[in-house]
């Protein structure tokens, strides 16, 4: 037994799956998918083959050539983090056909009833597979060390349509026989059903598998970009306006990092319960609707997810212990794109917000310094529980430090070569460091690479950004302590990010009266910009300013993005004399839980159980 990933049962002595062919019958009435998966291995195999699953019921495994059964066993007690080990006993087979059903509480899937959607008339279902949830949709070697190509036939009710982060082949009538063993032909070919067929011809890590099914429409926004969303004209129009500049960003990305390898770059705006700001699913990025603010600031999230097309999707971390290779590089690449399309000041503001975030994480992990490292040990650790800004912002700082050392032109060359060398591979921190040392001779004498990669905390040669606007806002925030509020003139040209930076830099110990005065003047609690609203509400909770608890409750019930749920629930329940707030948190969670994605439910449960 030679595991290669602390979050997967995958064994390095077994062949990898190279292709999966899926037939998926969506049953909205039971929130399940009746499925079959034909797995093709890199070579014929005899003996056990380990696959990851979570809450799947497996009904049969056969050899597709001979149609004979393949013995299998599913571990009886699921591991809380890894799920259930599925062991197949192969005798010289290179393909297996597995029939199975997902569970209504599959951790990757959120099933929305019509009232939970924008248009209120049709159900909706979507995936979120990163970090380790693909296994709750189909059995697989659910490690980013394994790359798979796939094809998929999604059998759905005729009024709905399906999108995937894959190439759409066609929408057509179901054909008898193609369900494989997912369900009977009579169900598959029923009159009210339609099949949407997709192929993914580039090998991807399983966490990038993604689909959504619902009443979905789209608008064209560029030569290789459509924005998809529930087919509500106002939502589609707002999204199309917000993301009009996408093609410009793709071009900048190509100039900086090399050719865009995924052909299309579509965007999908999900319902408000989507647990992330964005998810870099290849060919089709998934986005929270909270990024549509009407001021083109959603472009930053798009820049980030676009940047993953090179760093993350082309070059992938081998496992989650090296997650900074995905997110740190992407944060660096995102800011380079933002710098070109929105200017240096905007990029410096983003870096400054990140710097504040990184410093706050040091406080959060002060009793668990392992997670202030870039390379972390994650045996027995749920990646969703330790998700933080550290891989993003410390990773960004590390790369920025290297850039300062060797100069931008040399660093740009280095980045392009790095991407060209490792594209479509999954690598670890050592591989990156070896490549760095080989291509920048002597770098280890200038920068303490070991301290950056393996040390805790923020290295002394990290840098707080400097720019006029950044420095001005941070000093204004410090003056607030002495009772000085910014004047109307000073904030006249502030957008959401300026306010976010200001609020996040205020001392956490401001008085309730100061909070009320600030809001009376600038109406921050009602901001349409959730970054601003949530930053303000955190201060309000810290100051136990009850006037805002109603707004806190509305926010927690209105969106499921974990970037907002995490701090709001945490601020409500952590610390002493918080009895009233704890009761509020528990009640709101009980009432809102149903509307959260299962991943968000798990994360909030973990916060509450730690403190309540
Ligand atoms: N890949 C992440 C989202 C993610 C990380 C999902 C880990 C599951 C596990 C995505 O690229 C991301 O970083 N999103 C950010 C966007 C922001 C940095 C602009 C988010 O959701 O806030
Ligand atoms: Zn990211």
Automatic annotation (TrEMBL):
Could you tell me which Gene3D superfamilies the record lists for this protein? 3.30.2010.30, Neutral Protease Domain 2, Peptidase M1, leukotriene A4 hydrolase/aminopeptidase C-terminal domain, tricorn interacting facor f3 domain
Molecular function (GO) terms for this protein are: epoxide hydrolase activity; metallopeptidase activity; zinc ion binding
Annotated residues for binding of Zn(2+):
304, 308, 327
Q: Which SMART domains match?
A: Leuk-A4-hydro_C
Domain named Peptidase M1 leukotriene A4 hydrolase/aminopeptidase C-terminal: residues: 468-608
Q: What does this protein do?
A: Aminopeptidase that preferentially cleaves di- and tripeptides. Also has low epoxide hydrolase activity (in vitro). Can hydrolyze the epoxide leukotriene LTA(4) but it forms preferentially 5,6-dihydroxy-7,9,11,14-eicosatetraenoic acid rather than the cytokine leukotriene B(4) as the product compared to the homologous mammalian enzyme (in vitro).
Designated name of the protein: Leucine aminopeptidase
Higher taxonomy: Eukaryota, Viridiplantae, Streptophyta, Embryophyta, Tracheophyta
